[in-house]
Specification:
The protein has six helices and four strands. The chain is an alpha+beta fold. The protein folds into two domains: 64 residues, no CATH class; 55 residues, no CATH class. It has a two-stranded antiparallel ribbon with strand order 1-2. Strand 1 and strand 2 form a beta hairpin. The longest helix has 13 residues. The radius of gyration is 17 Å and the shape is globular. Pfam families: Ribonuc_red_lgC. It comes from Trieres chinensis (Marine centric diatom). GO terms for molecular function: ATP binding; ribonucleoside-diphosphate reductase activity, thioredoxin disulfide as acceptor.
Length: 159
C-alpha cells in the first residue's frame, strides 16, 4: 500500500518544539512519566500530563504515588494502586518491546513518502541486538532503520 508523493511528509523528533508546546517528541513513547526541566528560574519536576489527569480523575494522585514514581524512574509498573489498564497505557519506552515500536513505524511508513526519524531504545545494547533490529526493520520495509540509539543513563536524573 501507500501512494508515492501523496503527502510529502517526513516526521521528525522536534525536541525543542515539543518542550515549548509541552508535548512529547513526535510519535515517540514517553521515556519517563516524570522528568526534570531546567530553566533560568530553577529546576522543576514535570509529570506526564495525561497520566496526571488520569490519576487525578481516579483520586489516585497523591504524594505517596508521586514519590514512588520518582523512586521508580518515572515508571508506573510497580505502583500497586494504579490499575493494570493505566500501567499498560503509561508504559515508558524502556518497557515497550522495540519490535512493537518498529511495527508501528512500518504501519506509519505506508503513509510517509520520505522517511521518519525512528529512535530506538535499548538499555544494554549489543551488536547482536542492534543487528537483529536493523534486519527486522529492513524486512518490514522501513526506509530508515534507526535515527538514534538511546541507552539508559548510568544514573537516573530523578530519584
Amino acid at each position: 500500500g501507500g501512494l508515492r508523493n501523496s503527502l510529502l511528509v517526513a516526521p521528525m523528533p522536534t525536541a525543542s518544539t515539543s518542550q515549548i508546546l509541552g508535548v512529547n517528541e513526535c510519535f515517540e513513547p514517553y521515556s519517563s512519566n516524570l522528568y526534570l526541566r531546567r530553566v533560568k528560574a530553577g529546576e522543576f519536576i514535570i509529570a506526564n500530563p495525561h497520566l496526571l489527569q488520569d490519576l487525578t480523575d481516579r483520586g489516585l494522585w497523591n504524594p505517596t504515588v508521586r514519590n514512588q514514581l520518582m523512586r521508580d524512574g518515572g515508571s508506573v509498573a510497580s505502583i500497586d494502586c494504579i490499575p493494570d489498564r493505566l500501567k499498560e497505557l503509561y508504559k515508558t519506552v524502556w518497557e515497550i518491546k522495540m519490535k512493537d515500536v518498529i511495527d508501528m513505524a512500518a504501519d506509519r511508513g505506508k503513509f510517509i513518502d520520505q522517511s521518519q526519524s525512528l529512535n530506538l531504545f535499548i538499555a544494554d545494547p549489543t551488536v547482536d541486538k542492534i543487528t537483529a533490529m536493523h534486519f527486522y526493520a529492513w524486512k518490514k520495509g522501513l526506509k530508515t532503520g534507526m535515527y538514534y540509539l538511546r541507552t539508559k543513563p548510568a544514573v537516573n536524573a530523578i530519584q
